[in-house]
Amino acid sequence: MKKSDKKKRSLLGALPAVPYVVWMVLFIAIPLGMVAFFALTDPQGQFTLENIARGGEHMSVLLRSIKLATIATILCIIIAYPLAYILSRKQGFQKQTLFVMVMLPMWMNFLLRTMAWQLILSNNGVLNTLLGFLHLPKVHIIYTFQAVLIGMVYDFLPFMILPIYNSLSSIGNDVVEAGKDLGAGYFTILRKIIFPLSLPGVISGITMVFVPSMTSFVISNILGGSNTLLIGNIIEQEFTYNFNWNLGSGLSFVLLVFTLISMGLMSVFDKSEGGTNIW
Question: At residue 41, what are phi and psi to the nearest 5 degrees?
């Protein structure tokens, strides 16, 4: 075969990737380039590292964001794993019903879901109305750390359930039956066979929950108010209220570094574990 024919075939094979490459350039590469430019320059366009260095002024807010994202991720794992396991063992109508229950919140607008929780948790909302009906003391949750945590767990829980479900569904019954034949009990099989084999799904879920939880600002705006500021809120204020795009980009750059570090750690852990190690 001639070299020219090989080149034509390789070019034809690369054509389907062109729209994706264009999409990446327009909506990933160019925006990131703009963020980097504003982060490394002052309003006059001169090179500076001050915008990134000022990220230290908001280190307490960044640590609060990491703490909240970590707690939300752990709670999502605790809730999602049993649900995903039950879902992977169901068949027919029961599985379809459970799938709809998991996916139904995602069919609703993210903002509306968060505002619904504002109505539920407000001082005169659904929760306190129900507690008053039961003659129980009312609780003040709205505009607190706990309210933001509830909103994050609710909004991001499906992103933990689905990858864990996919991993659990790929585990064949023959593996479980082999463990039973060797005398392993139910909890031993779960601890030494099922959970290690499902680790890739758990790690994917951690990445899909931790990163948006750490960078979120809508949930903390609506459910946390001014009492629970996260790093995403600070960045939003710099862009929309202070119109300081340089400082906002610098803080975004710092947040991006932390996000990439967390994703890198997850990928290293995923490769080291591989979901196949037995405790």
Answer: -135, 160
